[in-house]
Structures are given as C-alpha cells and as structure tokens.
Amino acid sequence: MTDPRIEAAAKALYEANIGLTWPKDADDETMEDYYEDARIAIAAADAVVAGTSPQTITIPEVRNDRPIPGKGGVDG
To answer: What's the domain count of the chain?
Structure first.
C-alpha cells in the first residue's frame, strides 16, 4: 500500500494539473509518474522540517541587553 501522504499528494497533483478524477482517469504509467513526483515533493518537505535542507537557515540569537540605536537608550 502506498503511503497515504504520497497518495494524497499524487491525487492533488494529478487533479490540479490534468483536471480529471484520480485514479479513475489515470493509467498505470501516469499514476507511477505522479507517485514519483509526490515522493520527491514530500521528501523535500520532510528534509526542510528535519533541518537537513540546504534552504534551512539558522537565526542567530539576538542580544537584548543593549540600548536601541536612535532611542537614546530609553525603551518605550
């Protein structure tokens, strides 16, 4: 059985791009193509969530013990 996330993603991709009903109107080869596209998309999304994607950024810690420039050191 196909992972439910892959099945849902393949269905959404097919119906959005082709405009027909999944899987009734899709032949086996087309379905495999859309399953592969869905696997790639989900793997990329999982990599971002896991922090292993090169697009993941780290926001440095911001110090809050210094006055804000232009406010003369007065908060508010």
So the answer is: 1
pTM of the model as a whole? 0.60
- 39 falls within a domain: yes
Q: Using H for helix, E for strand and C for coil, what is the string for 36-70?
A: HHHHHHHHHHHHHHHCCCCCCCCCCCCCCCCCCCC
Determine whether 50 is exposed, middle or buried from the number of CB atoms within 10 Å of its CB (0-12, 13-18, 19+). exposed
* Domain carrying residue 34: 4-49
**What's the rounded Cα separation, in Å, for the pair 30 and 66?**
60
Tell me which residues of the chain have a pLDDT lower than 70: 1-2, 51-76
